[in-house]
Amino acid sequence: MGTKVNDDNSSSGAGRATRRQFLADMARTACGVGLLGLGIGVYSQRAGALPAEALRPPGALPEEEFLAACTRCGLCVRDCPYDMLHLARLGDGVPLGTPYFYARQAGCEMCEDIPCVPVCPTGALSHGLTDINKARMGLAVLSDQETCVAFLGLRCEVCFNICPIRGKAITLETEHNVRSGKHARFLPVVHSEHCTGCGKCEEACILDESAIRILPNRLVQGKLGAHYRKGWEEKAKAGEALVTPDLEHRYNLPEGVRYEHGGRGLILEKAETPPSNPADILNRGLEGR
Amino acid sequence: MADYSEVGKEAVEAKGWWGAYRWLLLRRFSQVTVFLLFLLGPVAGVWIIKGNLSSSLLLDRVPMTEPILFVQMLAAGMVPAADALIGVLIVALFYLVVGGRVFCSWVCPLNLVTDTAYWLRERLGIRGGARFGRGLRYWMLGMVLVLSAITGTLAFEMFNPVSIVQRGIIFGMGLVWAVILAVFLFDLLVAKRGWCSHLCPMGGLYGLIGYFSPLRVRADRRADCNDCMDCFVVCPEPQVIKPALKGAGKGIGPVILAGECTNCGRCIDVCSKDVFKFGLRFNNEEKVEGLRGTAQPL
Q1: Do A70 and B70 contact (CB within 8 A), yes or no?
Q2: Among partner residues B51, B69, B157, which is closest to A78 by beta-carbon distance?
Q3: CA-based nearest distance B195→chain A, Å
């Protein structure tokens, strides 16, 4: 803009003008398309976030990869024999056109042949998943102990009984009911090792709002540091402790008295009748001297 | 240029109504048939084809995958499973043979919307608006791929009205009517043939595929052209006609070789002199001129 072009002759000036025109058009197009791309990019990032309560079908790749692989074709939705999968419509608040389900509406029935997975043309639902028990659609969390009737001391156990991996993914732990003083509480406990996140427990929870919920593993599951070793497991594996064993503590106690650490405490081996003269106790062992 | 309401009248007089609308009607029939085939499953439980245009399964066996999705997936860094690979080869080969943008004119559901918008725009005499270059779609295609690479997702699929509309009709509309309306209004008021002929990156990709297609529209009898300009008015990509129709003096044509040609056949319909016909891309340039009147190429 600042420099004025001195044209030597009209023909080269025209050539330069068309070249300049061409470059200007290119730049304009590039800017326009770039801006549109930026807009779509930002929009897709904002509208592309999966709400926590929306779960992916079994075998789904981690969300980021899933969004790169899913063609939004709906074949998994079509092949679900229970029609519990949905394809996100515009305005549903789930990344457009991707499959999802809400556990509270209808959980995954965990078909043994997993029909939704092999039909996926791209492997967004990983074809490596052949055992439905290995699916990880989410993780059940007993999110509200205040309303779970088992915690209130009532017998419910619906989540425990409906669980497709009954007795493993959810177990019942008994506990003394302090309130009544004479009953037991049967508390459902989820084990992440077995829970597939199918959502049947959330679907079946008898409350108006479920006290047990399936949430994405990334939101709720902890992870031990990679360097962590469970001492008792390592010990069992090696057959002996891997660290120098603690010396057994020696208590200097009177004869007939033991101390059990972490157990019963002070133990009198035999109930002696105290000697009439207390000095005899102090002089015990010195009789010959 | 011919008055829009007069376009095609000459052809109707010369060839009769069917002759002047044959390819248009066949094309609408094809669009509606594809559309109904996809709907037949969810509505009537007859599963000839399952899924949607993005990916589908024909007769529960033949996988098909849309090329634009496939290239986005590659750009996003995914290596898709075998079905998608086979599916995209089937689709790409099909369009490679019949003409890339046959998708646009014979299959794409949005074509009905944009054709209607164009028709109304011409009828109402709406002029002006944004002017885009014909190469814009290739920029768009590049942008879509860059976007996939940067975001690592199929970002454009959040926006792509073609897949949104077709999926919406098959799997539940949601707010899809708003997308249809937006494209309609864009083509009606903002830019003449704005989406299909300028912006759509799917059209861009199919244009690249179609560059190699053997099936072409040929202006074999271009010597008979009476310069009525009707073909230029009805053609969604009028720039493709000129070299083939008017290139005799320069030794160009008579085959329309541009990948942007959608093989819609509207020019064949609208021409009262039967200048155009479907044929193969071979016997191009002057050779055909010599043959004219004796043996007609396929």
Answers
A1: no
A2: B51
A3: 14
From the list A36, A89, A121, the residue facing B87 with the nearest CB is A121
Mean pLDDT, range A32-51, rounded to an integer: 81
On the question of pLDDT at B147 being above 90, the answer is no
Let me know if B46 is exposed, middle or buried by CB neighbors in 10 A (0-12, 13-18, 19+). Answer: exposed
Chain A residues 50-109 with a CB less than 8 Å from chain B: 64-65, 67-75, 77-79, 87, 89-92, 95-97
Using pLDDT thresholds of 50, 70 and 90, give the confidence band for residue B285.
low
Contact criterion met (CB < 8 Å) for A73 and B158: no
Domain boundary assignment for chain A: 46-132, 139-220
Q: Give the residue from B245, B239, B216 showing the smallest Cα distance to B98.
A: B216
Contacts of B41 in chain A (CB under 8 A): 78
Q: What angle do CA A236, A239, A243 make, to 5 degrees?
A: 90
Catalogue the long-range contacts made by B120-128 (C-beta closer than 8 Å, 24 or more residues apart).
B120/B188, B121/B187, B121/B188, B121/B189, B121/B192, B122/B4, B122/B233, B123/B4, B123/B5, B125/B4, B126/B188, B126/B189
Q: A41 contacts in B (CB within 8 Å)?
A: 147, 150-151, 155
Q: What is the pTM of this model?
A: 0.74
Q: What is the pLDDT at residue A25?
A: 81
- Distance of residue B55 Cα from the nearest chain A Cα, in angstroms: 5
Rg (CA), chain B: 20
Helix (H) or strand (E) holding A228: none
Rounded CA-CA distance B264/B270 in Å is 12
Architecture of domain A46-132: 2-Layer Sandwich (3.30)
| Six-digit token string for A102 | 């809400």
**Quick check: helix, strand or coil at residue B239?**
helix
- Res. A207 pLDDT band, cuts 50 70 90: very high
**pLDDT digits 0-9 by tens, A71-124:** 888 889 988 999 899 988 887 788 888 999 999 999 899 999 999 998 888 888
Question: CA of A79, closest CA in chain B: separation in Å?
Answer: 9
Cα–Cα distance, B43 to B50 (Å, whole number): 12
Say what the ipTM of the complex is: 0.77
**Lowest mean per-residue pLDDT among A12-21, A38-47, A195-204, B115-124:** A12-21
Task: Please name the residues between 169 and 188 in chain B that touch chain A, using a CB distance below 8 Å.
Answer: 170-176, 178-179
From chain A, pick out residues whose CB is under 8 angstroms from the CB of B147: 37, 40-41, 44
pLDDT, mean of residues B4-22 = 80
Q: Quick check: B190 contacting A, CB < 8 Å?
A: no
Q: Which architecture characterizes domain A139-220 according to CATH? A: 2-Layer Sandwich (3.30)
pLDDT of residue B280: 82
CA–CA dist B99, B217 (Å, integer): 10
**Cβ of residue A29 closer than 8 Å to a chain B Cβ:** yes
* DSSP strand pairing (B55-58 vs B62-65): antiparallel
pLDDT of A228 > 50? The answer is yes
Cβ–Cβ under 8 Å, residues B107 and B52: no
